[in-house]
Amino acid sequence: MKGKGEFMGALIGFFVRLYTAVFGTLERITNGWLLGLASRFIFAAVLLQFFLNSAMTKIGGSITNIFTPTAGAYAQMLPQMMEQVSYDTSQIAFFPYGLMVLAGTWGEFILPVLVVVGLFTRFASLGMIVFIIVMSYVDITGHGADAKTIGALFDGEPYAIISDDRLLWIFLLLVPTLKGPGVISLDWLFGRMYRKREMYY
């Protein structure tokens, strides 16, 4: 019995050391570059076009309207207020409401691009998280999203647009917010140039 127990202990110890060695090595060789890069790549592949298309609807499909969002932009962001004024944007004060629509429109263009190219990545990723939270709140309270669209956590149905999809979007953006952009990013490139410059001064 003692021999069998020693053998089992040695076997368990071997697998623990193997596990630690394999995943410790994996963590070391990917630390500081892979997670940020992978999260930005996935964001670009899955969500970039979605946000840019959404932003284009706010300016009527023409970049010349970037300073004058359409009534559709107001209806998307301030649905109840627009209903109250019969969709007449001239009855909505620029400050703060028009400014909010303008900032939201610009944010939907600028922040996703900053995330993808990796410039001011932590700020842009955090901004996108806030944008998604606000968008979800407006969808629920302003656009009256139904229960199926809202969904619920821990319900065994991972298909709801708001509670499931957008929670995953937020987690995806938490990676560059907390870990940085990784390599192949403008932040990494400028940081490298700055460090080289500091070495000469």
TrEMBL record:
The keyword Membrane applies. It is a multi-pass membrane protein. It is found in: Membrane. Keywords: Membrane, Transmembrane, Transmembrane helix. The chain crosses the membrane at residues 7-26, 32-52, 109-138, 167-190. Pfam families: DoxX. Its main location: membrane. GO terms for cellular component: membrane. It comes from the Bacteria. This is DoxX. The lineage of its organism: Bacteria, Pseudomonadati, Pseudomonadota, Alphaproteobacteria, Hyphomicrobiales.
